[in-house]
Write a structure and sequence with these properties.
The protein has 140 residues and is α+β, with helices and mostly antiparallel strands. It has a single domain, classed as 2-Layer Sandwich (Alpha-D-Glucose-1,6-Bisphosphate, Chain A, domain 4). The protein contains three helices and seven strands. The chain has a seven-stranded antiparallel sheet. The mean pLDDT is 95.
Length: 140
């Protein structure tokens, strides 16, 4: 399955990328429900561990990084909190003008234990919540 969500921001692409470029910097722009973020390793191959409310943890591996293209990709690793297989996501910042941009957040995954609509709604909901937090940070 493939899911893609895009959001426009009243901020330059460079200013939005400043928040997204650091794989371990998730809490700089999204602290809602996230208690901690730690990273093991550097660059492609690094694994970030996201501590969630209630003591749960999610691990993501940086699979690709393109500074010039303002894009990075990651996958889920370790113990699964979300029942998706082969999850691979990419976030890309696209300039719309000097003072506005769009962020595309998309993924591909398998959903063997969920029906397609539930899986799509789950992933879209995560992306929309992330965009809301990013928008609050970069546009304030």
């Amino acid at each position: 399955m493939e899911v893609k969500v895009s959001e426009n921001f009243a901020a330059s692409g460079e200013s939005v990328w400043d928040f997204l470029r650091e794989f371990g910097g998730l809490r700089r722009w999204n602290s809602k429900g996230i208690d901690s973020v730690s990273v093991e390793g550097e660059g492609v191959g690094a694994v970030r561990t996201i501590g969630l409310a209630g003591g749960m943890e999610l691990q993501e591996k940086l699979e690709a990084y393109d500074e010039g293209g303002r894009s990075f990709s990651y996958s889920f690793v370790g113990k699964k909190l979300i029942p998706l297989d082969d999850y691979y996501a990419t976030m890309t910042v696209v300039d719309e003008s000097e003072s506005t941009c769009r962020v595309d957040w998309g993924s591909t995954f398998e959903h063997p234990s969920m029906d397609a609509d539930a899986a799509r709604k789950l992933v879209e909901g995560i992306y929309l919540a992330g965009f809301a937090a990013l928008k609050e940070t970069v546009e304030s």
